[in-house]
Every structure is written in C-alpha cells, then in structure tokens.
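All the exercises in this workshop are built on plain-text protein records. Sequence and backbone structure share a record, each on its own labelled line. The question running through the whole workshop is how a given chain folds. The record below serves as our worked example for the rest of this section.
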Amino acid sequence: MKTFIILSIISTLLVSCNVSPQQIAYGTDACHYCNMTIVDRQHASQLVTTKGKAYKYDAIECMVHSLQDELKDTEIALYLTADFNQPGQLMDATMATYLVSTQISSPMGANLSAFENETAAQNGKEKFTGELFSWEEIQDHLKK
C-alpha cells in the first residue's frame, strides 16, 4: 500500500510538469494577455514555462507584451508562434522571421506575422511589402 501511494505521488508530479505545447481551441480559448477569444490561426502564439504552464495568445504582439510585462521573470521553455503560411501550425518563435506589413492585419493591430524562415518571410514581404525582423528585433520593435 505504501509503495502504491509513493508511485501515485511520483506519477502525479511527472504528469503535472509536462513541458509541451497545449492544443489551442480556436473560437473557445481566450488570450492570456488581452482576454480576446483566439480565432486567428495565422497569428496565434503560446508560451510554455519550464514548469509546464502554457499561456495562449491571440496575437504575437500579445505574447511579446506578456513577456515584457507580467512574465519577464518567468523561466520559459517554449516560445511558439503560428506560421503565417501554415495556419494553426506552431513553430519555434525564436527561429522565426517576422514581417510587419500594413497589408496583413493581426488581431491586435500590430500587423505582425511570423514565417518559418527568412526565405518565406522575404517572399511574404515581396507579396505584401513591409519590414522584416528577427525574434530579438521584434521584441525591441514592440517595446512599450
């Protein structure tokens, strides 16, 4: 009986610290930062802490602002954003290239979209015009 209790506690701890993205329920989940319902599959994003807590966002700019404000001292394991060319598909936000274009509206008005790599972002820029940014640069660009 004692062994069963110990195994149960260990199992619970292992499951509760799962560091992986959570599925975004589009049309149901609310943005952690602005509380709007997440509906746009091309601009959604997510942060997952080292303890496994997932924060979902309706726009990349909400994720960045959240990192700059309330989560600035939080250890983040995963930075994820939707790939503009593959709506609903999350990718590593730190490796993405970002396009700010007035021809692409994002949910919170920053006109910010993420692309899998620089080539895809350059193709997006040719189609929509705008300015390209790296992960570090977009954080500076969005500073309040």
Remarks:
- The chain has four helices and seven strands.
- Residues 2-16 form the longest helix (15 residues).
